[in-house]
Amino acid sequence: MTAGMIELDDGAQLRTWTAGSAARQRLPVVMVHGGPGVRDYLAPVAGIISDLCLVHRYDQRGTGGSCWEGEHTIARHVHDLAWLLDAWGHDRVVLVGHSFGTNLASYFLLAHPGCVAGLVQIAGPFLDRWREADRAAQRARRSNEQQARLDELDAIGSRAEAEEIEYLTLSWLTDHCDRERAWDWALASARTLRPVNYAMNAQLSAAQK
């Protein structure tokens, strides 16, 4: 795996990773992580297919190693992805999006249909009134005590580190179907994917409504 930084047209630099090798008649894959507001976490997924093709990942601007401050828009992030494709030297790719990444990949497809040879969507996209149904499903997977604690932590304006880890764990444990291991998996993510860019999350979430 090769890690690097790619500078965009506005001076922002995005952290990227490339694994695998260019195989004949196999298009490269670009993985688009979710959030919005957390860094890339799709390395294990990339590892599953890196022996088959070239696989790219990146931290979206404002997350992880892609430091940036400013107003986040869907158009800006679509432009970022187009710039990355040019930097990698690809005319057409297969996009693999997860969660919010499915939405971003879909917006990219609409803006640059000729660049997308295939689209794989994992846990998304979020269309129509998805938020109400999603929240109802999440609530059903939490105990009353867990939901009460989540509400309590959500009301805190500035959470301490331990509180933030607990908050993210309670928020993310419902993403896992295996209920026996959901807490441990969510806790591991909460410990490694911080800090969350909540300004980015709010701006991009609002832009999709």
Overview of the molecule:
This protein has 209 residues and is of the alpha/beta class. It has eight helices and six strands, in the order βββαβαβαβααααα. It has helices spanning 43-49, 74-88, 100-111, 130-141, 144-154, 161-172, 179-192, 198-207, and strands at 2-7, 13-19, 29-32, 55-58, 93-98, 116-122. It is globular and about 55 Å long.
Protein traits:
globular, alpha/beta, 8 helices, single chain, 209 residues, 16% strand
Query: Compute the gyration radius: what is it?
Result: 18 Å
User: What's the rounded overall pLDDT mean?
Assistant: 94
Helix content class: 40-55%
The N- and C-terminal alpha carbons lie at a distance of 37 Å
Q: Structural class per helix/strand content?
A: alpha/beta
Q: Stretches where pLDDT falls below 50 for ≥5 residues?
A: none
Q: What fraction of residues sit in β-strands?
A: 15-25%
Number of helices: 8
Shape: globular
Strand count, sense and barrel status of the largest sheet are: 6 strands, mixed
Lateral arrangement of strands in the main beta sheet = 1-2-4-3-5-6
Q: Could you give the count of β-strands? A: 6
